[in-house]
Amino acid sequence: MNGKLTLITPPDFYENSNTSILFINITEQEQDTVSKWLGSAKIEKDLNLYVYDGDTNASWFLYASNRCEHKYINMDHVNYITQALSGYILGKDGVYYRTSDVNLGAVLSHINHNRVDSVDIFLESILGD
Fold it and tell me: Which domains does the chain have, with CATH numbers?
């Protein structure tokens, strides 16, 4: 990656014209996958990476979800805020989600068809060649 990465967490925001990605409730393993994927990718543009990991600031979460063009949510690790707002978030453009629960995935598919098996597939679909 040749572009600049800016990591943003609650309560901060970073206003610019860079592509912004929101990661919602990702695991440590997914964080490692994101770091490795971005480290080996040939991306020239600057990126803003918003990370929501269960902070109780629902206003920040909603603003970040509206601010970011691309969003990834791990539905297997939601907290009460993301669980309560998941239908709203999944109905937005640019949202991808992962779940290992077949029944939950079947229900969520009525709201959003962007189910992916992993965070690296999400990254490849939005930033890959």
Answer: 5-122 (3.40.50)
pLDDT per residue as tens, the chain (129 positions):
778 999 999 999 988 999 999 999 999 999 999 999 999 998 889 999 999 998 898 999 999 999 999 999 999 999 999 999 999 999 999 999 999 999 999 999 999 999 999 999 999 999 986
Burial level of 61, CB count in 10 A (0-12/13-18/19+)?
A: buried
Phi, psi of 101 (to 5 degrees): -85, 110
Residues 56 and 16: beta-carbon distance below 8 Å:
no
AA identity, residue 106: A
- The alpha-helical segments, DSSP class H, found in 52-101 are 58-67, 80-90
Measured between alpha carbons, how far is 70 from 62 in angstroms, rounded to an integer? Answer: 14
Q: Rounded to 10 degrees, what is the CA torsion of 68, 70, 75, 81? A: 10
Sheet containing strand 5-8, strands side by side: 5-8, 47-52, 19-24, 70-74, 95-98
